[in-house]
Amino acid sequence: MVNGEHFHMVEILKVHAEVLARVHSDAFVESWNAEDFASSLDQPGALGFIAVRDADDEPLGFVLLRVSLFEFDDGGVGEVLTLASRPPVRRLGVARALMNAALTTAAKQGVTRVFLDVAADNVAALALYESLGFAEVGRRKAYYARGLDPRMDAIMMARDIGA
Fold it and tell me: pLDDT: is 4 or 128 the higher one?
């Protein structure tokens, strides 16, 4: 339970592509479709979790990462491809729980550093990532499409995890 919302984590599988697309479209103006998710889940190292409400099995949000491990190094890197939570459960701890589950799993797989991109104007997400120990490492100019609005910069962030 996080802030009164009882939910559990389900490991993301390719069969969840439609569900992920629905949640993503609730969370973002420019969203991925089911084919985008199926393609991402086909990639080596894809992992993630869906937060599912206990009472009715409603998906509340999800996180999707890609992990790359290196034999010649002391571990590997992870990249958060997307994190989404439905608007009614924002700021209730669902995204934080998803990120914690993903970071823990990535660390167990040998990942030592995780990267992500976040829109420069997404104040809530920036606060979440900073509170989880991520720090800005760069910027991608005009990275995010915003429909008819001007494109938005992406802030690149990173955090060391694991051993």
Answer: 128
